[in-house]
Design goal:
Bound molecules: zinc ion
Strand order of the largest sheet: 1-2-3-4
Number of domains: 1
Radius of gyration: 15 Å
Strand content: 15-25%
Number of helices: 5
Helix content: 25-40%
Number of strands: 4
Length: 156
């Protein structure tokens, strides 16, 4: 149990099967605050902000949605597609509002199979600096995604 009662609710929300099938923490044993701190330090060393990453992910998502479920080719051998799944998800941190279940899949050089993110995931990065726990299917590695967005900066 954590000291902060408000965070207990967040931990509960992030467990598999509470808000989403896989949850948000994967097999990461670090506290949520520590995950955020470690990723924030990495972003700082990269010279990029979570808000910039979120903006890049949003552009990628908008591009992907144009494909209506098919892959769209981007520069540098990358391709992206969006699958819209019925239903909406709330923010596990307790923000008001619901996020559509668009799942964006990105593939290309240096990516092991595909890299996936959702509308809620974009919100978590932008508002909470939270890239999810290691082992979560929607975990984004800050250095990896920052590098990809940099390569795609002319295209998205
Ligand atoms: Zn939120």
């Amino acid at each position: 149990m954590k000291e902060n009662p408000a965070m207990n609710k967040v931990y509960e929300n992030m467990k598999p099967g509470v808000l989403s099938l896989h949850g948000f923490l994967g097999d990461d044993k670090r506290d949520i605050e520590l995950i955020i701190d470690h990723d924030a330090a990495e972003l700082e060393s990269l010279g990029v902000t979570a808000v910039e990453i979120a903006a890049g992910l949003e552009k990628l998502r908008d591009k992907a949605l144009e494909g209506l479920g098919d892959y769209i080719s981007l520069e540098g051998g990358f391709s992206v597609k969006a699958n819209s799944i019925r239903g909406k998800l709330p923010c596990p941190f307790g923000h008001k509002g619901l996020y559509r279940k668009n799942v964006v899949s990105l593939s290309g050089p240096g990516i092991d199979s595909v890299l996936m993110f959702t509308d809620l995931g974009i919100h978590l990065v932008r508002e909470h600096g939270f890239f999810q726990g290691k082992g979560s299917p929607f975990r984004l590695e800050p250095a990896e995604i920052a590098g990809i967005l940099k390569k795609l900066s002319g295209d998205v």
